[in-house]
Design brief:
It is built from 20 helices and 11 strands. With about 475 residues, the chain is an alpha/beta fold. The protein has 2 domains: about 325 residues, Metal-dependent hydrolases (TIM Barrel), CATH 3.20.20.140; about 100 residues, uronate isomerase, domain 2, chain A, CATH 1.10.2020. Helix 1 crosses helix 19 and helix 11 packs across helix 12. The longest helix has 21 residues. It is globular, with a radius of gyration of 23 Å.
Amino acid sequence: MTPTATSSTWTLSPDRCFDPDPTQRSLARELYASISGLPLICPHGHVDPLLLADPDTRFPSPADLFIVPDHYVFRMLFSQGVQMEDLGITTRDGRPVERDGRAVWRRFAEHFALFAGTPTGLWLKAELIELFGVRERPGRDTTDRLYDQIEARLRERDFTPRALFKRFNIEVFSTTDAATDDLEPHSRLRAEGWTAVRPTLRPDGVTNLATPGWRSNLDRLSQVSGISVVDYASFIRALEQRRQTFKDLGAFATDHAALSPRAEKLARSEADAIVARALRGTSEPDDAERFTAHMLHEQARMAAEDGLVMQLHVGSYRNHNPAVFDRFGPDMGADIPLTTEWTRNLQPLLAEFGSDPRFRLILFCLDESTFSREMAPLAGHYPAVFLGPPWWFYDSVSGMERYLEAVVETAGVYNLAGFNDDTRAFASIAARHDVWRRVVSNWLAGKVARGLLDEDDGFTLAHQLAYDCPKRAYRWP
C-alpha cells in the first residue's frame, strides 16, 4: 500500500528552487521579484482550443482538470499499478472507464506521496495551494474535503478556462493542431477577437508514412485542404495550403517530431516513387524513414518561404508500451528517450537554410548528452538555430540547471528560446513557468555571486530568459 503523509498545514516555501547560501539566495529573490510578474509567453503546448472557444466552458471536475489530461500524473500512477481505466482515461475500443470524478480523485489523492521529489509534485503543490487555496496535503484522510473545495471553486466564474487564462497573465498561447484539423475553435476565437490564442501546425500524421491510419489521414488532408492528394506534387500543394490556413488564423510556428533529426533532400523522382508506393499500400521497409528525412528538409524550405518558425522535437521513442497504445492511443506517457546525433544528421538542412535570415529552427532533445557537445555549438554558429528549453523529462529543477550549465557557455542566452510549458494540463501553465523563472533567477544569482556576471547583467538576462527570448525566437511582436 502506498504511504501517505499528512500535515495540519500545507505550505509552499517562498524560497523554493533557491540555493541555501544566503548571498545567492538574497540575489535570487531580487532577480525573481523583477520577472515574476511578467506576462507569460506560451508558444508551444497541447491544451485543447475547445476549452477556450466557448466563454461558458467549465472544467467538469477536479479529476478532469488535474488528472485525466495530464500524462505526467497518470504515468506515475500507472507505474505503481493503478489502471488507467480507473483514472478516467478514455479507451480506443470503447471499454468502460471510471466516469466518477470523485472516484478518480480518490485514487490520485491516495497515491499523492508518489510525486514527492518530482517536478509534477512541485507543480501540483503550487496549483493546489496558490490557485485553489488548499491547505491540506492530499491523502486518504483529506480526499473528499479537497475534492469538494476544488469542485466548488470550479463552479465560480473566476475559475473558467478563460478566467484562468487572464489570471495567468498569458500574452500569447499556442495550441498544437494536426494538418487535418479544421481549426473551427480557432476560427471562433479569432472572430470573437481572442487573437492571443494561436494554432501551431503539427503535420506528422501525414508526413510520417508509418503513422497508423496514414491513408485515412491523407483522405482527411484532401478534404480540409480542398486539394485531392493523388501524388507527391498534390501532397506538397495540400501541405502548403494548410500552412497558409494556419497563418491566416495567426499561427507563427510549426512543430515536427521525429526519432532522428536526419534531414536529407531526395531527388524528385525518389519522392514521387515513395508516395506512389505508399498510396498503393506497397511501401518498402526504409520508405518511411527516408521520406520523413526528406520532409524535414522540404518543410524547412517551406518555412524559409512563408516565415513560420520550425520546431523540431527529436529523440523520443513514442508509444513504447504497445498495450497502452493499443488500448488508449498515442501520447499516454509511454515515451522513452533515445540517443540522438545532430551534427551529421542536420548538416544538409543547415547547409542550405542555416544562414538564411528568413528561416528559424528551434531544437528540442531528450538526449542531454548532446546539449554541450552538439546543440549548443550549432546554435552558437548558425543564425537560424535556437535551442528550445529542457523538454519532457528535463522540465524540472535539476534538468533546467543542467541545461543552463551545458549550453550557455557556448550558445549564450540570446540563442535560447526561453521557456514553454508544453502542457496538456491547463492549470499547470503558470506553475511551470514559475519554476523556470525561479531556477533562472537562482542560476544567474550563482553566477553573480561567483563574479562571473555583473549584477546588472543578471537582471538583464533574467528578463531575457523569462520573456524576451521566446518572443525573439518565435518572432512574436
